[in-house]
What does this fold into?
Amino acid sequence: MANLDHEPDEPQLLSLLEDAIDFAIYRIAIDPTHPYGGRVVTVSPSIKEIVGIEDPWRFETWFEHIHPQDLPRVVEANRRSWKECVRYDESARFYSKNKGQWVWVRTISTPVFDPEGKLTHFTGLVLDITEQKQAEDELQYRAAFENLILSLATRFINLPPEEIDDAICAALQSIGEFTGVDRSYLFAYTADHKSMTCTHEWCAPGITHQIQRLKDIPVDALAWSNQKIIGGNILHIPSVNTLPPEALSEKEEFQYQGIQSLLAVPMIYQGNVVGLLGFDVVHAEKSWPADSVGLLQVAGSIFTNALENKRAQAALKWAHDKLEQRVIERTQELERTNEALQIEVEQRKRAEESLRISQALYLEVFDNSPLQIFVQEVLPNGSFRVLRTNPAHQQGSGMPPEKIWGKTIEELVVPEVAQAINQHYRDCIQAGHPIEYEEEGPSPYWNLERIRTFRTTLAPVYDQEGEIVRLVGSSEDITDQKLASEIIMQRTREEAVSAERSRLARELHDAVTQTLFSTTLTAEVLPRIWEKDPKEGQKKLAELRELTRGALAEMRTLLMELRP
It folds into this structure.
C-alpha cells in the first residue's frame, strides 16, 4: 500500500490492512497543522469502496461526502475525541459515488498515548452497516404499517353508520401519508358492472382532486384495467409509461391525471367485486412490495365491510321505520296492513342477514390474520377475562378455545406473568388510547422453559356511555428478529475486539522491545565499566534495574489490556 507508515517487521498488520474487504482499519496521527487536527498514517484501501473516498490519505476528504444532517454531529464528536482523549464511536451516512447512493458507515477509534501519557494518534475501524440499517428500517416500517391497519380495523368496530364515510376519508389520508402516495380513493361498481363512480378521495397538498369528474364512468372506457379488477386481481403498475398497447385508454387517462405509478386492489363482498381501493403516485415512480400489497388488501376488506355494514344498517333502519308506520295504520286497513307487514318483515330479515354476513367478514379478517389477536373483557372488579382469540393466538398459546375463552389471566398463566399482563391492560385503560409495548412470556403458556419476545399493540373499545368495556390486542413474535439483531451486534463487537487486540500487540512490540534492547546494551558494557570505575558501575547497575522494572511494568499494563 503506497505511503504506508509501518515497521518492516509487521507483516500481519500489513496483511490485515491490505486484505480488508468489508471493513477498513486506519491510524490518524494528532497533527494540529492538518485540517480537523489529524494526519492519515495508515489506512486500508477498502475504505475507498466502503465510504467512497477517492483520496483517503487526505483526512479532510473523509468529511466531504458526509450527509449534511450528520456532518455537524460527526465534526463535534471528532473534536471532542481529540480534545478529551476519549473513544470515538459514531454512525453516519456517506455518499458513495461508486454505488451512487447514501451508505451507512460506523466508525470506531481508540486514542493511543506515548509512555509520557501524551495522545499521539487514534487507531480505528470503519464498518459498512447499510444492510443492517435497511433491515431495521424495513422491519420497523412493516410493524408500523400493520399497527396502522389494525388501528383502522379497531376504529371501524361499532362505528355508527353516519360516521363511516368520514372515517374512510380519514383512513385514506392515514394510509396515503404513511405509504408516501399522492392520491388514495375508492371506486364503487354498479351491480351489473357497467359503470363505476369515485365515492371517496384523499389528495396530498398540491395534487388535483379527480372525484368530481370520475362519476358514472363506463367500465368499457377502461376495459383493460377493469377486466383485471373485476376478475379479482390486483392492478399493480410501477410505471405508466410501460403499459402495453392494449392499455392505451388507461395510459392516456393516467397521464392526463399526471399519474406515474398506480396500485388498485379489488373490494370483494360475498364473492362479488363491488369496488376498488386505489393509490396514485404523481411525483415519482413507485413499486409496492408484496407484504404492503397484502396489508392494503386487508384495508380494502375493512372498507368493504364498513360500507356493507352501513348499507345493512340503513336497510335495517328503513325496514324498522316502515314497520312502525304500518303498525300505526293497521287499525285502519287491517288486511292491507297485514300483507304489507309480511313484506316488511321479510325485508327486515334480509337486512339482518346482510348484517350477519358483514359481521362474518369481519371475523374472517380476525381469524386469518397472522398476528395473535385477542379480545379481553373488562370486568367490574378491574380484572380481565378472555372473550375471543384467533387461531394464530391459539397456536402460539398452545390452548384451544375451550381452555382459554371465558378464563381470567390468573387462570391461564403463572402469577408473575399474569401480574405483568394485567399491568399492561391497566396502562391501556389509563391512557385511553392504543399503546404498544414489548413483553416476554412462555409460548405455549404451559412451557415455562420456552420464553419468547412479543411486540403487542393494545386498543380500548368504548360503549355508548364512553366506558371502556373491552380491550382488543395483537401480538407479534419478534424473538427471531431480536436474535438476528443481537447476532449482528455481537459480530460487530467481536470485530472491534479483534482490532483492539491487534493494536495492543503492536504496542507490546514497539514499547517493550525498545526497553529490552536498552537493557541488553547496558548489561553488556557493565562488566568493563565496573573494572575501570566501581562507583560508575554501581550507577549503571541502578539504571539497569530501573530499565528492567520499567519493561516489567509496561508488560503488565499491556497484558491487563489484553484480558477479555
